[in-house]
Amino acid sequence: MPWGAGVATGIGSMPGEDIVEALRVVLGELPDLPYLPELPARGPGADLVGRTAGALVDLHVDLQPSGWRLVDRPGRDVRRARDLAERDLDALQEVAGDHRGPLKVQIGGPWTLAASVELPRGDRALSDRGACRDLTESLAEGVRLLVGEVRRRVPGAHPVLQLDEPSLPAVLAGRIPTASGYGTLRVIDEPEARAALALVTSAGGVPVVLHCCALDVPVGLAVGAGMRAVSFDAGLVGARLDDQLGAAVDAGLALFCGLVPATAPATAPANTPATASPAGADRLAAPARALWRRLGFAPESLPERIVVTPTCGQAGASPDYARRALRLARETAGVLAESPE
């Protein structure tokens, strides 16, 4: 794998508005597979759809009362999204310029983008095959440029790209509502979905991870599109995806297992200690061990094929808990490396 055995990483989003501080936290807690944090609290353009739309090449969007919409020329909102992205890359160069090894960056996938962005006069782009094709091709070029910027600013990095596709299961099942709310948009069949994902996956020439925090993660599409890993909430999917995950591991994919709660559990007392205990890390490692046993693979291969993550993004966490969760993810990965059984 592009990363070592027994490593952890984060999903992407973090609380707060200070990108330099967020980067320092990530690099301090996750030195083996750090990532460029996303800070949605900064407002429009820092959200998943806004960030991704800002990376499009030769397509422009603007923020309307109903959401992001394709427009003829770039406006204030997309310029803000691009300015935020440039600041993030500047901070990455400043804080992590000497980093050597894997470095993850995240961007929205083509189907979540098509399900979120509106056409100039009408419904979501998902309703129009031509618009979906244009968005995918533009996003692929944006991915190529993003990876190139990461390589230029952090010469020792080995970029890893995470495609965030929270809407993909709903797209495949035809559950995306029309603008009126009285119907649903067209169902995207698997060959069409796979072709778009494969185009974006191949664009940057780097390992790609499909991230989806849903019950029905499309693991087979990740395999068919040439990705290197699939990221999911282990507690959410349970055993329902065992067959697909087993086939993915057989095909050479890694599993990014969401084991650490992304936000502090509601039952946790306010004065919960800031350090994670070995017993806590061992408890969090249990679902990964159970999954590996169900899949029937040799225990010693687990640390090489499972990367520990929080269950989802951490924009809703407190800064203190976000740091603790990353530390606990690292400690849980260490427990799995030392004792996969």
In short:
The protein is α/β, with parallel strands linked by helices. The chain has 13 helices and 8 strands. It is 45% helix and 14% strand.
Give a verbal description of the structure.
45% of the residues lie in helices and 14% in strands. It is α/β, with parallel strands linked by helices and 341 residues long. Helix 5 (129-153) runs parallel beside helix 7 (190-203). The strands form 2 sheets. Strands 3-4-5-6-7-8 form a 6-stranded parallel sheet. The chain contains 13 helices and 8 strands. The protein is globular and about 55 Å long. It has helices at 19-29, 48-54, 76-96, 110-116, 129-153, 168-173, 190-203, 219-224, 234-237, 242-250, 278-295, 302-305, 319-338; strands at 60-64, 67-71, 101-108, 157-164, 208-211, 229-233, 254-260, 306-310.
The chain-level structural class is: alpha/beta
Radius of gyration: 19 Å
Q: Give the neighbour order of strands across the main sheet.
A: 3-4-5-6-7-8
Order of helices and strands: HHEEHEHHEHHEHEHHEHHEH
What topology does this entry show?
Layout: H1 19-29, H2 48-54, E1 60-64, E2 67-71, H3 76-96, E3 101-108, H4 110-116, H5 129-153, E4 157-164, H6 168-173, H7 190-203, E5 208-211, H8 219-224, E6 229-233, H9 234-237, H10 242-250, E7 254-260, H11 278-295, H12 302-305, E8 306-310, H13 319-338
Parallel strand pairs: 3-4, 4-5, 5-6, 6-7, 7-8
Antiparallel strand pairs: 1-2
Helix pairs in contact: 1-3, 2-3, 4-5, 5-7, 11-13
